[in-house]
Amino acid sequence: MDRREFLHLTALGSLGAVALSGCASGGGGYVGPAPTAPAPVAPVSGKVMLGIDVLAAEGFARIKGLRCGLVTHRAGVNGLGQRTVDVLARAPGVKLVKLFGPEHGIDGDAKAEVSVKNAKDARTGLPIYSLYGATRRPTPEMLSGLDVVLIDFQDVGSRSYTYISCMRYVIEACFSLARPVRVIVLDRPNPLGGEKVDGPFLDRKWRSYVGAYETPYVHGLTIGEIARWAVATPGVLELDDAQRRRGSLDVVTMRGWRRSMTWNLTGLNWVATSPMINSSKAALATR
Fold first, then answer.
1. pLDDT, tens digit (0-9, with 9 covering 90-100), for 47-81
2. Using CA atoms, how far apart are residues 130 and 170, in angstroms rounded to an integer?
3. Any alpha helices (H) in the chain, and if so which ranges?
4. What is the CA radius of gyration of the chain?
5. Which residue, 148, 200, 176, 161, is CA-closest to 3?
6. How open is the CA angle 164-169-173, to the nearest 5 degrees?
7. DSSP per residue over 180-198, as a string?
8. Which domains are assigned to the chain?
9. How far apart are CA 138 and CA 235, in angstroms?
10. Residues 6+ positions from 84 with CB-CB distance below 8 Å
């Protein structure tokens, strides 16, 4: 799959995952169900409805009665600016029991490449397990007792931003257990939009925490689309085929988002995703 085909498929709204899978799986084409396109109808508020807001609008039916872990950061908020942590903690029938933080920590104030320690959330009292400290993958002990892990990250659309790497490691850890833990990704807009794709594809031998996927540097995907492509395509994740197929991934898609939308068209307020990316303009500079 060459760059022209990749750009064409992404611009057509094929979610980029089709094109990406052809590259990652040796040209074998997309494997598994195609990602569901976000609904074209705008929500009543006039804003894009985030995955967490869609989950709430559904009455949290997907996670009621389940013991939940949440992987998130400072920008993990709903359309009203309320923390996803707090939304889930007070949701009726939802049992939020553990939190996990990536690089920069859940509060987003740790500097880049600085180790983050385990902590306790001041507001809810829930334990926070650092995924950028002694380990970058949740251990079986961390995942013990959980039925589902939710992931709510605001990405910036470039391959080197480490939240999508953290997501990959979480999916691999959940799927590799003898009793896999279900993963739910709460989708969010790509601030660069879903049509811009640029830069070289990553050579597999250079994969690392700042380059966890063999995509162009500017990939044109939402975090939910990356997750779906990674799980559906053999060879993307460090899992054998049986583990990949046995695991369960669900993506709560947005409402009202279109691929042509850059952040300023979403009607959403930008929350700093890391100390240096404190505005949507700063996010544009990462491309």
1. 899 999 999 999 999 999 999 999 999 999 999 99
2. 12
3. 3-11, 17-24, 51-57, 84-89, 140-143, 163-175, 223-232, 241-246, 280-284
4. 17
5. 200
6. 145
7. PPEEEEE----TT-SS--E
8. 3-284 (3.40.50.12170)
9. 21
10. 52, 70, 72, 76, 77, 78, 150, 152, 186
Pairing mode, strands 198-201 and 216-218: antiparallel
pTM here is: 0.84
Average pLDDT estimate for 102-112: 73
Measured distance CA(219)–CA(200) in Å, rounded: 10
231 CA to centre of own chain: 12
CA distances from 6 to 35, 199, 203, 214 (A): 16, 12, 16, 13
| Cβ(32)–Cβ(233) below 8 Å | yes
How buried is residue 34: exposed, middle or buried, by Cβ count under 10 Å (0-12/13-18/19+)? Answer: middle
Taking the mean position of all CA atoms in its chain, how far away is CA 259? Answer: 17
Q: Nearest Cα to 52, choosing from 32, 26, 29, 75?
A: 75
Query: What is the spatial distance between Cα 177 and Cα 137, in angstroms, rounded to a whole number?
Result: 13
Query: What 3-state class would DSSP assign to 266?
Result: coil
Contact between 188 and 254 (Cβ < 8 Å): yes
Residue pair 21/31 in contact (Cβ under 8 Å)? The answer is yes
Place of tokens 């395509």: 233
Q: Contacts for 22-28 with beta carbons within 8 Å, 24 or more apart?
A: 23/201, 23/214, 23/215, 24/213, 24/214, 24/233, 24/235, 24/236, 25/233, 25/234, 25/235, 25/236, 26/235, 27/1, 28/234
Q: With 70 as the cut, is the pLDDT of residue 82 above it? A: yes
> In 3-state terms, what secondary structure has residue 219?
coil
